From TrEMBL:
InterPro entries membership: Aldolase_TIM (IPR013785), Methyltransferase_Class_D (IPR034474), rSAM (IPR007197), rSAM_Se_TrsS (IPR054698), rSAM_sf (IPR058240), Zn_ribbon_HMPTM (IPR056488)
Keywords: Iron, Iron-sulfur, Metal-binding, S-adenosyl-L-methionine
Protein name as it appears in the record: Radical SAM protein
GO molecular function, one term: metal ion binding
Origin superkingdom: Bacteria
Organism: Candidatus Scatomorpha intestinavium
NCBIfam families: rSAM_Se_TrsS
Radical SAM core domain: residues covered: 88-303
SUPFAM superfamilies reported for this sequence: Radical SAM enzymes
Pfam families referenced in this protein's UniProt entry, alphabetically: Radical_SAM, Zn_ribbon_HMPTM
Source species taxonomy: Bacteria, Bacillati, Bacillota, Clostridia, Eubacteriales
């Protein structure tokens, strides 16, 4: 491997922090190589492209984005996150894991949920989490998560607790079962000020759901989308994409979503990461950003092109990708200009972008006209395609982790970067989760 830069990572076996190098492998692609004194050497593919393409992708890291409040570093990254004083990005989204319970037991689950009864956070604990987030620079965008948050009956009350403190955007991370099966539930959530349904949606084939979710769910997913559309609750489809399972279905998912604009505001792609509970074996060739973008271009017949996309700016560019499209009256789409420095350079910009494009908007009392009508039409015909490559113990890069802006809210530790909080070793032992 022709090395061009150094970083730090962890041993996949023991999670010990070890030096790592990035370089060009014999295949011409970018790899990370690292060696643990006890468990040997590891090599992982990072980027299917050459060094010029790899370095060109990172156009954003302009600094000035440190969090306003941090805690002293103790054991060092990634063992003392909270956010610690070495973290380089303010928060954008904070996950509140409201319950350990889940009404599925997916073969693939970063939280390893659904193994037992579990427990729910009390309203007192949730209020303390909101207050902690405010102390650390909030209000942030809130992701109501779990487990499966809809197994609780008090989501509107939980949102109200946050709104009393100044939080304004509440995204419901959900498998959609209750949205599909309970009449009027989507309307109840919208009345309760839930901003958006972030809907697990892995494909349009029940074989995909058997592989990733353990049961056939396509009909339930379709009904969940339909019920949200009828209620006016915005939806973002969130496919977990696994090689050989559903990576050939990105075009179908994108077309399905576009046909349901503006009820479906976009698609957020999450290439599979091998942490938590993951029954799928790690393939020799992992999904990378260039490969996902090439598949999007190929499967949409060039309607969406790889060059339409840019990396993030508030987070590491190598964590994410994003493009926005405008739908014309004839149904065709056109890519909107990419922002200089990626999607959003500051975490506050990222928060506003997500809330503005994915969140519910208050309907005017009268039919809009003039400029208001123009804005409403533009909003209703804008479609986002984005993705996030979460890190696991094989490809964890501490430089990327220190730029993370998606955090788990934890009463004991504070704000823990998502990829640290969910990190597990090769035997499934967690660094943070109990």
């Amino acid at each position: 491997m022709r090395v061009f830069s150094a970083t730090e990572s962890v041993c996949p076996v023991c999670l010990r922090v070890i030096p790592a190098e990035r370089g060009v492998g014999d295949d011409g692609y970018i790899h990370m190589r690292k060696t643990c004194p006890e468990h040997g050497s590891f090599d992982v593919l990072l980027w299917e492209g050459g060094i010029v393409d790899y370095l060109k992708w990172d156009t954003a890291g302009e600094g000035g984005n440190r969090p306003p409040v941090t805690v002293p570093a103790a054991a060092g990254c990634p063992n003392s996150c909270g956010l610690c004083e070495n973290h380089e990005s303010a928060g954008c989204c904070a996950l509140l894991e409201l319950t350990d319970r889940c009404n599925l037991h997916c073969p693939v689950c970063f939280a390893s949920a659904g193994d037992g009864q579990g427990r729910d956070l009390t309203h007192g604990e949730i209020a303390r989490l909101y207050d902690m987030l405010l102390e650390r620079g909030g209000p942030f965008n809130i992701q109501l998560s779990g487990g499966e948050p809809t197994v609780r009956d008090d989501l509107p009350e939980i949102v109200a607790l946050g709104r009393e403190r100044g939080f304004t955007y509440f995204q419901l991370n959900t498998n959609g079962l209750r949205l599909a099966e309970e009449e009027g539930y989507a309307e109840k959530l919208l009345r309760g000020s839930v901003s958006c349904a972030f809907l697990q949606f892995d494909g349009l084939d029940d074989g995909v759901y058997r592989a990733l979710r353990g049961r056939e769910l396509l009909d339930i997913k379709l009904r969940a989308v339909e019920n949200c559309a009828r209620a006016g609750l915005p939806v973002v489809l969130v496919p977990t994409v696994a090689p050989g399972v559903n990576d050939s279905m990105l075009g179908d998912i994108l077309r399905f979503a576009l046909e349901r604009l503006p009820a479906v505001r976009g698609v957020h792609i999450q290439p599979i990461s091998y942490f938590g509970r993951c029954s799928l074996p790690e393939p020799e060739r992992r999904l990378t950003i260039p490969r996902v973008l090439a598949e999007i271009e190929r499967q949409t017949g060039g309607a969406m092109r790889a060059e339409d996309f840019a990396g993030g700016g508030a987070e590491s560019a190598y964590c994410s990708f994003h493009a926005s499209y405008r739908r014309a009256r004839d149904g065709s789409i056109k890519a909107l200009p990419r922002r200089r420095g990626g999607c959003c350079v500051k975490s506050a910009e990222a928060r506003d972008f997500v809330a503005g494009h994915w969140g519910a908007h208050e309907e005017p009392d009268t039919e809009p006209d003039g400029f208001d009508k123009f804005l409403a039409e533009a909003r209703d015909n804008t479609f986002t395609v984005s993705g996030m490559l979460f890190q696991d113990a094989m490809n964890l890069d501490l430089e990327r982790l220190r730029r993370c802006y998606i955090c788990e809210a934890d009463l004991e530790r504070g704000m823990v970067p998502f990829c640290a909080y969910n990190l597990t070793d090769s035997a499934g032992r967690a660094l943070y989760r109990r």
